[in-house]
Amino acid sequence: MLAISIAGISWAHKLRVGYKLATLSILSIFIFYVNSLFLLLLILFGILLLYYSVSIAVLRKGILLLRPLILVIGLIWIFHIIREEFLSGTVICLRLIILFALANFVTLSSRLSDMIELFLWILHPLKLIGVRTSPIGLALGMVIRFTPVLIARSKQLLESWRARGLKHINWRIILPIFITVIDDADRVAEAIRARGGI
Q1: All residues at 6 or more sequence positions from 3 whose CB lies less than 8 Å from its CB, including other chains
Q2: Stretch 63-71: mean pLDDT
Q3: What is the torsion angle, in degrees rounded to the nearest 10, for the CA atoms of residue 43, residue 48, residue 50 and residue 55?
Q4: Greatest mean pLDDT range, 8-17, 22-31, 150-159, 187-196
Q5: Exposure on the CB side of residue 172, measured as CA atoms within 13 A
């Protein structure tokens, strides 16, 4: 989830997370069998309408989430152009954009708590052999919730590094990032213990 879900009461928000993930899985398989450039562009346009059907805010956020992928997808496309595979390269890049856009749509229209609830439901059979699934659900939620925090913290440290005139970033940046992660984990553990644990 990466804490990017947008709260709302749209049809997409009301739809069960399990249904959305099942649909995403089926569409992902279907996309890999589509080789028509026109059909892929039509699907991409349909996804934009899907975003728009929820709200303008979701559409804008969805486009912003695709921006970091443009460089990677662009490099893949250039690689295929060099190999004189324009059509197949374009098809591959469109597939990637469509798959990421669909996954982001599920993320934007789903609450973290619903995702964790679904995950715990999937793990429910483990209770029959004595495994406590609630700590697993909590761990999943913590990882998902704090991943964007860790990314933001890393960016701040990199900016501080550059502000000191150190242009070349090397392995030494790992230690302060690691220390901040341990510090955050310690504070979260204290907060959980203060509330009686799981």
Answers
A1: 112, 144, 145, 147, 148, 149
A2: 83
A3: 180
A4: 22-31
A5: 4
